Amino acid sequence: MFSFFVCISITLVVFTAIMVTLVDLRISGDADYFNRLKSIS
Q1: Helices (DSSP H) in 1-41: which residue ranges?
Q2: pLDDT tens sequence across 1-41
Q3: Contact between residue 33 and residue 24 where contact means Cβ atoms under 8 Å apart
Q4: pLDDT for the residue 5
Q5: 33 Cβ neighbours under 8 A, 6+ residues apart
Q6: Burial of 33 (0-12, 13-18, 19+ CB in 10 A)
């Protein structure tokens, strides 16, 4: 039962991160996003 809740938590975190990234992309534009990706890695 505990691992079930862990799976849900991880899924929610990943989903939230994807949504934030998509909204961020829409606001700042593709080029700016890729530039930030390059500077992170």
Answers
A1: 2-28, 30-40
A2: 789 999 999 999 999 999 988 887 676 666 777 787 888 76
A3: yes
A4: 94
A5: 24, 25
A6: middle
Q: Which residues of 10-25 are buried (b: 16+ CB within 10 A; e: fewer)?
A: eeeeeeeeeeeeeeee
By three-state DSSP, how is residue 35 classified? helix
CB 21, CB 14: distance < 8 Å: no
SS3 41: coil
Question: Residue 8 is encoded by which pair of tokens?
Answer: 């849900």
Joined tokens for residue 39 = 């500077």
